Amino acid sequence: MKNIDERDKQILEILCEDSRIPYTKISDELDISEATVRKRVNLMKEKGVINKFTMDLNPSNLGFDMVTFLGLDVEPEHFLNAVEELREIEEVRWVAKSTGDHMIMSEIWAEDNQHLSKIMEEKVGKIKGVRDLCPAIILEKIR
């Protein structure tokens, strides 16, 4: 990885497991000072290595038993508008421009099959320029 050294990698591994871990615990684990941990984390934020600290939610514990990756194909002249409209749909967790089989990929959280169908038909499918929807239902998150 560019822009970071082995010590930074160790700090990142710990933070990826629990981004709320106190810097003092990281310093104890790596046998470096808390100030060093703080400086390295701040520098990685400045360099754009760390964009933000976030949570890893469990969709099923929030009532969403169906997680779906949805590939979309859109008429090129409607591409940017489609991306913006997707971002506004509450159940859409993320949207990405992509290459390969689909122009846009997104993750959708739905309560069940019926809810997913409703999202795809009444929300995503009605976005101007959408030509094709290709859902892939996630059976189990492994990593």
What can be said about this structure in brief?
This protein is of the alpha+beta class. It folds into two domains: 42 residues, Orthogonal Bundle (Arc Repressor Mutant, subunit A); 80 residues, Alpha-Beta Plaits (2-Layer Sandwich). 39% of the residues lie in helices and 22% in strands.
Protein architecture, described:
The protein is elongated and about 55 Å long. It has two domains: 6-47, Arc Repressor Mutant, subunit A (Orthogonal Bundle); 59-138, Alpha-Beta Plaits. Strand 2 (92-97) and strand 3 form a beta hairpin. It has five helices and four strands; from the N terminus they run H-H-H-E-H-E-E-H-E. The chain is α+β, with helices and mostly antiparallel strands and 143 residues long. Strands 2-3-1-4 form a four-stranded antiparallel beta sheet.
* Strand segment tally: 4
Rounded to an integer in angstroms, the radius of gyration calculated over CA atoms is: 20 Å
Termini separation: 21 Å
CATH superfamily of the largest domain: Lrp/AsnC effector binding domain/regulation of amino acid metabolism (RAM) domain
Helix-strand topology string:
HHHEHEEHE
By CATH, the architecture of the largest domain is named 2-Layer Sandwich
For this entry, give a set of tags.
single chain, 143 residues, alpha+beta, Arc Repressor Mutant, subunit A, Alpha-Beta Plaits, 2 domains, four-stranded antiparallel β-sheet, 5 helices, 4 strands, 39% helix
